[in-house]
Hints:
The complex is a heterodimer.
Chain A: H1 4-13, H2 19-29, E1 34-37, H3 44-58, E2 70-73, H4 77-94, E3 100-103, H5 109-117, E4 122-125, H6 127-134, E5 148-151, H7 154-158, H8 161-176, E6 181-186, H9 192-200, E7 207-210, E8 216-221, H10 241-250, E9 254-257, H11 261-274, E10 282-285, H12 291-302, E11 308-311, E12 326-330, H13 336-343, E13 353-359, H14 367-377, H15 391-403, H16 409-416, H17 427-439, E14 454-456, E15 459-461, H18 465-473, E16 483-488, E17 493-498, H19 499-502, E18 510-513, E19 516-524, E20 527-532, H20 552-563, H21 573-588, E21 596-604, E22 607-613, H22 618-635, E23 639-644, E24 649-653, H23 661-667, H24 673-680, H25 683-698, H26 719-729, H27 734-747, H28 750-761, E25 764-768, H29 777-781, E26 787-790, H30 794-807
Parallel strand pairs in A: 1-6, 1-7, 2-4, 2-5, 3-4, 5-6, 8-13, 9-11, 9-12, 10-11, 12-13, 16-20, 21-25
Antiparallel strand pairs in A: 14-15, 16-17, 18-19, 19-20, 21-22, 22-24, 23-24, 23-26
Chain B: E1 2-4, E2 8-11, E3 16-19, H1 26-32, H2 42-56, E4 60-63, H3 74-88, E5 92-96, E6 114-116, E7 118-121, E8 125-128, E9 140-143, E10 148-155, E11 158-168, E12 171-173, E13 184-185, E14 192-198, E15 201-202
Parallel strand pairs in B: 3-4, 4-5, 5-6, 8-9, 9-12, 10-13
Antiparallel strand pairs in B: 1-2, 2-3, 7-8, 10-11, 11-12, 11-14, 14-15
Amino acid sequence: MKNEFADVWFFNQGWQAYRFQKECWSAIARGKSGILNAPTGYGKTFAIWFGILAAFYASNQKRTKASLHALWVTPLRALSKEIYRATQTVCDELDLSYRIGLRTGDTPTNVREKQRRTPPDMLITTPESIHLILASKEGQDYFKSLEFIVLDEWHELMGSKRGVLIELALSRLKALNPGLKIWGISATIGNLDQAQEILLGSQHDGLLIEAKVDKKIRIQTVFPDQLDKFPWAGHLGIHLLDKVVEVIQHYQTTLVFTNTRSQAEIWYQQIISVYPEFSGTLAIHHGSLSDELRFRVEQALHEGKLRAVICTSSLDLGVDFRPVDCVIQIGSPKGIARFLQRAGRSEHRPDAVSEIYLVPTHSLEIIEGDSLKYAIKHGKVESRIPYIRSFDVLIQYLMTLAVGDGFNPDVIYAEVSATHCFSQISREEFDECISLLVHGGGALKAYDEFHRLVWEEGRYRVLSRRLAMRHRLSIGAIVSDLMIRVKLRSGKYLGRVEESFVSRLHNGDVFWFSGRQLELLDRRGNDVIVRPSNKKKGTVPSWMGGRFAISPDLGEAIRHSLKSIGDRREVSPEIAFLNPLFQEQQTVSKLPNQEELLVEQIQTKYGYHIFIYPFDGKFVHEGMAQVIAFRLSQIRPATFSIATNEYGIELLTDVPIPLDMDILAQLFSTHSLHQDINFGINVREMARRRFRDIASIAGLIFQGFPGKGMKSAHLQANSGLFFSVFEDYEPGHILLRQAYDEVFDFQLEEGRMQQAFDRIAAHKIILTHPDRLTPFAFPIFAESFRERYTGEDWQAKLERLKLRMLNE
Amino acid sequence: MQMLPERALYVPEQQLLVIADWHLGKLQHFRSEGLFTPAMEIYSELSRLEVLIDKLQAQRVIFLGDLFHSRWNSDWDVFKEFANQLAAKGLLLTLTKGNHDILEEKHFSNLSMEICDQFTLGETIIFSHQPIKDAPDSWFQVVGHVHPGCRVDLGARQTLNLPCFFLERQRLTLPAFGIYTGLMRIARCAEHRLFPIVHDSVLELR
């Protein structure tokens, strides 16, 4: 089947269409739905876009009134803009009447209003914006002529609660338009079939079209001159600065990816101060910067004006920068898919080789170069595990509908229970969610003043304008702390930092942000006013979030690398380089082989450490550590602070713990393991942490009206408080149950833990008492994030503290 | 003066009990704003005070502001009845108004409670919700408002956040009496003396 629009346009560009593009055009022309599996930057947008265009003009239905024909949903604002630019260009060049609109969080109100009154033919937007439209009067009418919905970079959304927002929006849109065609675009993930099923429904007859682009990637590790035998995660790899600059100078344009925004700020600051000649050609790009700043950087990248951009995941997706011919990853990429995505940002031409350099931030991270090569060679890639039974998102959605046109519970129950997320929801659970919104849940009390939903003409509605307004402001499934705007005295807006960071600063203090050194002049409500400064010392804000653990699949690859240490034949440069470190480990303690489990007992000024190295990945280690702490505290009551990483576990106490072979055998016994997992792990503490996001998404925590400062302070409370109140007064509350379920589903992988204990049972346990921290121990010791496990009751602990304070 | 682990201050000579930042009615207020929190049992909160009064044989209670969380809700009426019963037993009740105490005049009618901005004991001990600016050096101020807390080191890289009393020169800040309130962490420095509530005692942090 021919696609005349594509033929003309591709001919004009001098391009050849790929096979997968033709397949998509043909499938769309036949009225099919489906998933397109293609990496970023190979024309996946055009594969879908020309299909939609052709379908629009092929349709005989005359659209008398302006109405929405297609929705294009992306996870990122930057990506939305990119899609807008690409599709609009086609319309302009082919002189088509098809009108395209862009709506994101920062579209001005008057433009939104115009989009509402006269809908464009296609609206490019985010999941949150769809819900915002549903939360407005006659919002559902807006979608009534919709024929296409495209979920771009669906793999990015699927493993998050934003994916649930999509599922719920789709359930409504499908009901409004039974003939709706759904197209997902996804990079390769481990569970592509499931990704397709979630979008198209369990009984779908949709297609899976694969781009089959075989892209070559060359991975090179940037080695330090000297191997540091005491690898410390705090270095941030800055000691490799000169080598990184060497790489940048070798290429045309380089993207330097860091894992956190503060790391990006630090790298930018370091390069500029050591190599001032980069000013003007080096830029910084991350999610907390203002749109204006980011847009300028993106523009300059397109025009080839920049030598390098220090960025975070903000440049992971979409945006296609032709001149980029090299990518540098600072620190562990934490996942194989993310690594592939980033590597793919360089050299989009299919025959070209993507160059990516890995810059370790501590010595042990060097091993990941070896691990990633192994993973890519064997086609290993992560699955995205979709959320199920996310009642917080459901409650938000019900409120959204009530704020908009109202809803009938029977109708919505039928739609919702057809989604993947809520396929297991019972009518009782659904009604429980509604009852929370109707009378606040729990036992109805006579004097209660709760009000939210009102029953009117067969529908639940929200009548209070204030409640409706508050709800619209809190739509979304990304939970972040209160953000403070950073502005210059002229009023120019630079970006946002976390409130907790600003609260530590005083007027006159200097900090690094948006690649500039700024002095804090004043704080007004939710704004801080700054001016550029030349003072020498400054701090860098740290942002919550954006810190992730290494994925299970990358963890597996790392373990594979570690196992090949003893393998003399064919070692990678990474393993060869690390050899002295392994030798040191062997000298001061022991280098365990595949059949051994190493346990080290070390005393430092911090207390008494026990290090254990099961090499089972961070997630399994977290649970394992708690089980072991529980078992130890049966023998000797104590409070442990726990740190874990990919390789091992640290248990730290302020009292000595006697260990011998018998005790160790008990600790790792598979006997009554299930019971110890249930009793031993501090699930409550984990649930409490989960509850923060849940309470926020469900609408229990209100962040305040933008720009109104602390006006809504009377509604501020932290989620920990709510968690305690629910535990005391409504222990069976549906949101509490969700918090516990999420812990069991996402955090504790009992199955994998069981396997690990089984494996260890066959291992020989080796106990050493090194007189100092070993190369293996050091990175765990340096982990800043710690869990706590208490084998004592709360009161006993406070008693102990009291005695200590009295003795001081 | 005695700093009590029940998050209150007691002046034995005058049999005077001081309670700061109770924030009664907070959860009920959340509910009236459409946030589906469980309503807290107001009676169990009230009995916390009652037990304390009985134990100490207090003659007067000063509420150091932020007694009630926000606008009127039914919890206020329950409290009012409770307060009047205390007054009937001969207790003197005083409220030094705080920023959260925004109830209209009418809700204080029929309530046996003295309402003022500050309360003075002797010549120089001043009780108020927030510190009084430019106070003479001879004054000793007792205030609430900030819900002070501090971080206590437990050893083995563990810390705890505990509510505390906070003395800075001539000013003592009380911890919030309300349990559903947050903590504001007070920095440790030479000018600050911090007295966290550790289990059943109040101890100075050094």
